[in-house]
Amino acid sequence: MRLKCFVLLLFFLVLLLCTKFDGCEARNQRHRKSKLSPSAMARKKGRHTSVGSSKGDRDDHGDGRDNQLNPPPSSQPPYPGTEHQVPNPAAMFSVLDYGANGDGVADDTKAFEAAWAAACKVEGSVLIVPAEFEFLVGPISFSGPSCGPNIVFQLDGTILAPADSRSWGSGLLWWIEFTKLQGITIRGSGVIEGRGSIWWTSTESNVHPSDDELSLKLVEIKPTALRFYGSYNVTITGITIQNSPQCHLKFDNCEAVQVFNMTINSPGTSLNTDGIHLQNSRDVMIHHTNMSCGDDCVSIQTGCTNINIHSVDCGPGHGISIGGLGRDNMKACVSNITVRDINVHNTTNGVRIKTWQGGSGSVQSVTFSNIRVSEVQTPIVIDQFYCDRSSCKNQTSAVALSGIAYENIRGTYTVKPVHFACSDASPCSDISITGIELQPLQEQYHMYEPFCWKAFGELYPPTVPPIVCLQSGKPASNRILSDHGMC
């Protein structure tokens, strides 16, 4: 009897030990399963990952994120309702998987078109242009509106513009275009290389012998490198755009735009190479961006409102400009512009408003604040007689300027500290000047005193130099806008 009890007890002990062992094994199996390698995870889920993209595709966690591709958080929150959704990690489309060579010689335009066609169908997809490759891409349009929202264009490689006239036909206004999209992000550490030097030369004889591949005569219409049209919730961050034939980055008819932590780079001698050009766009924020070019670092044109530019380095170039507005007797409307905490150096202008004679409409509620200038020809400019031709017809009507504030603008100039040339028929009103301290570099240039014509407002001294030419108060007979001239 005792022996039977002992055997029975031993049986229960063995059974209990086996149960615990199985449980441990099961946990170990689950633990080992959770440590599948990133490549195995990708194969298991069938992701469209980049072939040969050594960086920029995913981090050590294997979850499709790369901390290096996400710049530091914006110093200001995005506009309400513009937060991007997290991209779909199961929908990544590399241009290499669609036939791109990436050698900088073969034409990869069709591969980019095919990759976009696939990514366009999926909400939150990521189109990957991998690092360490150069892609020769002709004029291309990444178009909606049938595309899914919140697409990410992950640019870590280099995109090269064609260098011969055959790719441009009779002339195009843009090279790379994104149109009619809802939630589009261009991000990464890559480069858009416009190869614009041949476009900047005035005659074919200026082409260097080493540029034989560029020797074909290009069309007269110079394309913008990167253009966005009719899009909402646009983000550009991390990338570099350089050597554009004309404007580097343009937004037309766009809303809720963020540009930050990027670089625009062309020589100061490159003709008409604006950094960022805004037109008919609203709710735009540009910050923590470095720009050097041959024209305006930022150009704000008609139809723009709620534009906020801060923490930008500009130079060489023509400074930050509103206009030219009112060309060919057109109506122009610009309002609610803030430019602050800007460093401007080695430029022709600092902050400028320029309008053509004969225009109509208005510019109002503009603030230029905390601007640091260094070796700038004329730091503060209003020019209502702007003309980029040999001569322009004198006309009476003009775009009306009011509510323009200049605060804490300091540094050095090389020609003239302030130039206010306002319209006779529509004088500038409500100009406010506070905390101006501009010193000349007399050893280099002939200096001029501050100039004012038909400029009215309030001066809050002291200012260096004294800007005594600004007339106090309001003009005696300010023009009343007609229905045609009202915004």
TrEMBL record:
One record GO biological process: carbohydrate metabolic process
Compositional bias segments (type: Basic and acidic residues): 55-66
UniProt keywords, alphabetically: Cell wall, Cell wall biogenesis/degradation, Glycosidase, Hydrolase, Secreted, Signal
Compartment(s): Secreted, Cell wall
Pro residues composition-biased segments: 70-80
Signal peptide: 1-26
Protein name as it appears in the record: Polygalacturonase
Organism: Zingiber officinale (Ginger)
